[in-house]
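Lecture 7 notes: from sequence to structure.

We start with a single chain of 465 residues. Read the sequence below before looking at the structure.
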Amino acid sequence: MADEPEAQPLTPTQWLICAMAAIGFAFDIFSILVMPLVLEPTVTALTKNTFGTPGYTNWANAFLFAPLVLGGLFGLVGGYLTDLLGRRRVLVWSILLYAVSAVVCGFCTDPWTFLFFRCTTLIGVCVEFVAAVAWLAEVFPNRRQREKVLGLTQAFSSVGGLLSALTLGLIAYLLNNKLLPPIHGEYDTWRYLLISGVIPAIPLIIIRPFMPESPVWQQKKDAGTLRRPSFGELFQPALRRTTIVSTLLFGCAYGAAFGAIQFLPQIVPRIPEVSSKVAENPALKAASKPDIPSVRKRIATPYVATVQSWQEMGGLVGRFALAGVVLVILSRQWQLRLFQIPGLFVAPLVFWFPATNDYELLKWGAAFAGFCTVAQFSFWGNYLPEAYPTHLRGTGGIFAANVGGRMLGTAMFPVTNYLSYVMPGPKDSNIPLAHAAAVVIGAVFLIGLILSFFLPEPSKERIEE
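Now the structure, written as tokens:
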């Protein structure tokens, strides 16, 4: 077996590849996280159902959960095509799909049309992520250099989350001051936030078609030695444990995010401190009775954006922490546990206490929950490319991300929603929802910690196959 190549200074092309990958990772998460941020006003505007009613819960589950499930299903096909057709080609078409779909969502007037284009948005996102990770992993043959590149570029996923929160606050300010034109006669924050997702896609669409293909993939393709990918191979004896455990663990990480953290935009406006400040706002007192609900939501939006920004900053710090941890701790299991253990003991307390009655403390709690959860997403971006051979990197990675993350993990969103119905407290308050989120995030952190003991260490022979 040949020795591992030494790390070389990055060429201009490699720098450009890293920059495009970083923008792509940021755009992926931006596109996913805009929906939880504006879920309540979107459901209310398109379906006329209000928070706390069964109709609201059903449509909220549909808008958030269904697109990720369908994105995961189509993403499996996209992962297969990533290995079969090449990384670059699949990247370009997936970006184009979710950019166009995001814009259309902002102009929809009925829930079914919105749901269709939200699904196509997430289909593009789910395919793009693993294709980009496989591409990066194969551009840098040196392990330590590859670890640094994957860790640092994926840190921009949290930049995308942070940008979604900051963009929400900016749009709310512009709409509150009538500095943007209405869409369909309404100053709806959610429409502009969804449309803004096309902005970072512009440089990707312009530059990525001219970027080089993965050298490892292209070499094997030209030599006729590239093995055709197969989902069945993921469950052969040599890879079965890796596939099953990584898929379930990926689901636990997404379960923490979508079973608890992504409920913060619905929890924050109902914290007594926030709701009282909204009620005292002069704009609300001056609003006509029909406009009161929409004005109330716009006034509360900056509070939501602030908490979300703290959570995303915590996630960004977590990604950078993971990038440092992988260089000093070789055990993959312990890299993961460093974030699971503190999350297990603290994250449930964040949602049980400050999420119900302490806005200032919740900001810090949201940052900590983001730190422990989001770092795990970067972990999988580092682990999965090394866990599978070249011809299965896209297929194996996208199976774990889509089946584990987008299907199993996001299923915690409806679980939390329906669990909130049996929790004590007024159904139109934040208490049942916050307590349900506390139970779910504690459960998925515990399950993830147990599963970490069964996670295989990547084989060097497998990486170089």
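The chain is about 75% helix and 0% strand. Keep this in mind for problem set 3.
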